[in-house]
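Give me the fold.
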Amino acid sequence: MTAADNMIHDGLDGWLFLTGGSNYVTTLYDRQAGNLPDKTLSAWRLRIEKRQAKCSALGIDYAHVIIPDKLTIYGHKQARVLVDPNLAPSLRLRDMLAGGPAADVWVDLVAPMRVKRDVVDLYWKTDTHWTPEGCILAYQRICEHLGVQPCENPYAAPHKAYPAQMDLGLKLDPPRWEEVKEYDFAGSAQRIFLNRVGAFLEDPAFGSEIHIGSRSIFENENARNPLKILLFGDSYASQRANFLTGLLAETARRVEFVWSSSVDWGHVKKNKPDILITEIAERFMTVVPRDRLILPALEARQIVRAHRAQFSRWLDTKRTAF
């Protein structure tokens, strides 16, 4: 490896782990210091309890899901000790919520993932994201928690396999390849809406630069569960059908995804979902959301940002031409 050494740990059996980056991942496993001390997790506990109280007042079922970091699940694949996986933020927050008013909204993924981690790869070895197998396990656990009937066989969904350089593997010199699978889990569901931020996200010209505020809606008249689900999440859910959003779209009559860690309560009240799910990757928990999101304002800001990026590229092209 090269300069990536201070950001990527080359673990046992080919497992790569993000250790640095903007979230300083290895600092998250510390009760008193780093970017996710117990003080910050206490603020998360209060936020989740307030969300539960609001949902209860609105007659909405609520679930909070943390996607564990790879080190939390595959910490036994560290080539040298970087962190204590049992001090993972998700485990510490779970303990804080236990016995409190929001204990029942917690969906534990750490325990079931650790049981299955050596049976099947739940994360890509060369990427920070979960595999379809990891996503399906989480989906089934969420359905069980909410009392929702899951799909019979998610693995029957159409998929494609191809070699790829993933987000960690491509930072190495030479890059490391991995054979990956990508599923279309939506089945009979149709994506009926994608906002302009989502369109920017899916435009190769922007890459993944503009993503927060992406919003999509799926409808499925053949769904087993006549439910409306509103999901505030991130790339582990996605505005597309390849991860958690797609699995839920095959499961419920209507599913709306919003890429945000913060909740727009005006949007919740307007759309009146049966179920609200908030999902966040463990390493993104360093900032506690204030839940003062106003989606139209966020979308407008992102559109302005996209136009500025387009203008900047156009200007660079003109300068190069001269």
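The chain has a mean pLDDT of 94.
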